[in-house]
Amino acid sequence: MSRTKPNRRTVLAAMGLGLATVGCGSTEAPNGRPVPSCVLTPEGTEGPYYVDTALERRDIREGRPGVPVELRVTVVNASSCAPLQDAVVDIWHADAHGVYSGVRDGDESRFLRGIQHTDQAGVATFSTVFPGWYDNRTVHIHVKVHLGGDEIHTGQLYFAEEVIAAVAAIPPYVERTEARIDNDGDFLFPRGGPRSLLALTGDPVSGYLAEITMGVTT
Length: 218
Prior knowledge:
Elements: E1 12-13, E2 27-28, E3 34-35, E4 39-40, E5 68-77, E6 88-92, E7 113-117, E8 123-129, E9 140-147, E10 151-158, H1 161-168, E11 199-203, E12 207-216
Parallel strand pairs: 5-12
Antiparallel strand pairs: 1-4, 2-3, 5-8, 6-7, 6-9, 9-10, 11-12
């Protein structure tokens, strides 16, 4: 499916679901689940590996090896934190060996790329794998958020360093010979990266649930 390329607008992010929100400006919902506050987050770079595929699918793995990750991105109204339905979330990232699909001449592959529309709860869910590292970058996932055809956020989502280290110690990641840059050594992470950390539950054997909530102006 194709959509009109949206114009860049201010986007805010509400981070840290679950227990990770305690002490971070969250309030408690009637069901006892913490509700994140909406916090301004800076725009991030698109990077050189974006491919405008408009490939709508939940499972973006295409058989790529790696630790399973279920990524849940919730899009909410920045003023009220109410969920927004039918926002378009576009993600792409490197595979376990640090390789992006579709960026070399003649490469028609599209693994680890896809879009999802948010549901009534404002949630877009992807089945993917834990990314690898490359070119002096820490581990990250690229994301764009489109709303109504003319709203956009371009940014990057990050993982806690202790989780990256645990994953890097097992196959296929441990097979990498390229040195890994940690979050503190990454040249982009200091520009809002701490406010773009995914809330993670799980382990390197069974996989991870990765969650983040992003508030947008409408």
